[in-house]
Amino acid sequence: MQVKCLEADLKSIAINYMIHNSILEKTNTIINEFTIGDYTRRVDLAVVKPNRLYAYEIKSEADTLVRLPGQIESYLEYFDKVTVISARKHIKKILEMAPQNVEVWEIHSEKLNIIRRGKTNIVTDKLKFLELMTVADLIKIARAENVLLNSYRRNAIQQRLIYLPKFKLRKYALEALQERYKSTNSDFFQKVSERFYTKSEDLYLLRSKKVEKLDAKLDVNDLLEALQNLEDELFPLSST
Prior knowledge:
This protein is an alpha/beta fold. It has 9 helices and 6 strands, in the order H-E-E-E-H-E-H-E-E-H-H-H-H-H-H. It has helices at about 5-20, 70-80, 90-95, 125-130, 135-145, 155-160, 165-180, 180-195, 210-235; strands at about 30-35, 40-50, 50-60, 80-85, 105-110, 110-115. The chain is globular. The N and C termini lie far apart (about 75 Å).
């Protein structure tokens, strides 16, 4: 009887395929469980390449496809290319519901086949680049670009930075992601290079304590922003 592959198994098979086919290289950044859109969506795997950002959504046999259309719609707003990686049982429905520019990979019996090639559509929305970064990242950009900030609230900073050129915001966003996950990727690729392939249990290296601590800091930033918003509402600045 064939053993059903869980999501972690599909992830490791996909990562091995990407490494062996030079889709994923040591100079790239891979992120496990990457949140976007005010934490409303979580991408199973994201890969940061020079001037490109790719999303990979995993659908195991145990998953349903109820959320897939909404996930794809959101991912296409942030990522230059989206790929759905699925167990064989879902492939027919995925091909029907996913736009033609979305790539589809099938994993069956631990083998991966590309069922449909997708297309790269470069994201041009400045706001999406800003949303990929933390408040700390945005403050660093403001200082680098000599942009005066009257508030450290995310929305206020974004309004000041939105006027920067698209190519600059894209560059800043990708560099911020690479820096944020630099240590986790170093640990991961070191482990993979020792045996030339990855196992499902290696995925924890891409979600190490270092990134969890950073996420905690992000939560603090969100809390501070909420408190400042409340303060502004309760004690608005008097007009002069």
